[in-house]
Amino acid sequence: MIDPGTGPTESIPLDRIDFSDSRFRIGRIHREDALARSVEMFGILCPPTLLATGNDYVIISGHNRLEAARAVGTHAAECTVCQTISPRIFMKHALLKAYRGALGPAGKLRSVQIARSLGADEIELGHTAIRGLGIPDEIYRDHAFISGVRALPGELLRYIDQRDIGFKPLKSLMRLPAEGIGLIAQWVEEYYLRLNIFRDALELMLDIYRKKGSIEEIAGILPRPGADPHAEEERLHEALFRIRYPEYSGIIAAADSIRERYRDRGVSLVLPSRLEGGSVEARISFGRKDSIEKIGKAIGSIAPGDIRSLLDLLS
Fold first, then answer.
1. CA gap 236, 230 in Å, rounded
2. How far is the C-alpha of 69 from the C-alpha of 35, rounded, in Å?
3. Would 271 be classed as within a structural domain?
4. Can you tell me whether residue 258 is helix, strand or coil?
């Protein structure tokens, strides 16, 4: 096999490339308009690497570029063709992708899995994986963990790499039962959760699972298709938070009773999300035609004792 970025190239018809064979795919999937425009105007700037398999070819590196070329109607592309594949050179491809920021946690583990299947030397592979790709030693040595990650739902795998969630959250994810993984996969597929929401939801789910021994209580917290994404993210987080911290519901009920009284007076008392903060806001709206008496009455309706009670509820 040829070092990445070196060796002669040849024009390969795209209809002889097996795009359905993704056995060597480790990089993030990018279907961006910018890539397609670049390929359409200038061709593929960095030649992909292919493995010859009889009369056809399998992509080793350059999946996104070749898919973009096919999408814009290109019939052939300049590629580097290999007759064999070496685990050492394959890991050089993986390192190059990692240094370019094109390789997420799942892709890094997949590269190790592929290199092992090609007969890689474990000492050399371990050095490359741990020092070069940043895979934690305990994960690198856990073959079952790596296989388990590979078996995750496809959309969740793509999310893990696209969001670059890190290995610590990945370990938390793999500690969940299959039903928990399926639940978080549904949310990711429907709303592509913001990373901070994903991480928080994951830790809350894992805490609930450890505490209760199952995820039965959260199994019904399902995404509602077509709703506002941010509102749905907050709904997920709030629901998990209430289950993880049952005392929170009682505190919120006490706060809501105070806030409801003030809402009737035109005063909005705003608490920090999940009571995590150090301040309470009182918001009052006044109109141009409001009298001094009305303004004074609204301001005077705020009782210091009520504000103090709300502040005491904050964590």
1. 10
2. 9
3. yes
4. helix
Query: What is the extent of the structural domain holding 78?
Result: 1-85
Question: If DSSP codes are grouped into helix, strand and coil, which group holds residue 75?
Answer: coil
268 vs 297: CA distance, rounded Å: 15
Phi, psi of 266 (to 5 degrees): 85, 15
How far is C-alpha 295 from the chain's CA centre?
Answer: 49
CA distance 202 to 172: 7
CA torsion, ordered 36, 40, 42, 46, to nearest 10 deg:
50
- Is 19 in a helix, a strand, or coil? coil
Q: Among 63, 85, 107, where does a domain finish?
A: 85
Helix (H, G, I), strand (E, B) or coil at 80: strand
- Cα–Cα distance between 193 and 186 in angstroms, integer? 10
Write out the two tokens for 308: 């103090």
Q: Among 70, 85, 100, which residue terminates a domain? A: 85
Residue 63: C-alpha distances to residues 79, 87, 107, 211 (Å): 12, 19, 13, 44
Q: Is 272 contained in some domain?
A: yes
Q: What is the pLDDT of residue 3?
A: 58
Number of domains comprising the chain = 2
Model pLDDT for residues 217-272, shown as the tens digit of each residue = 999 999 999 999 999 999 999 899 889 888 877 887 888 888 888 888 888 888 88
pLDDT tens digit string along 124-158? 999 999 999 999 999 999 999 999 999 999 999 99
C-beta separation of 315 from 275 below 8 A: yes
Residue 70 CA to residue 3 CA, distance in Å, equals 25
Sign for the CA dihedral angle at 235, 237, 242, 243 comes to positive
Domain containing residue 9: CATH number: 3.90.1530.10
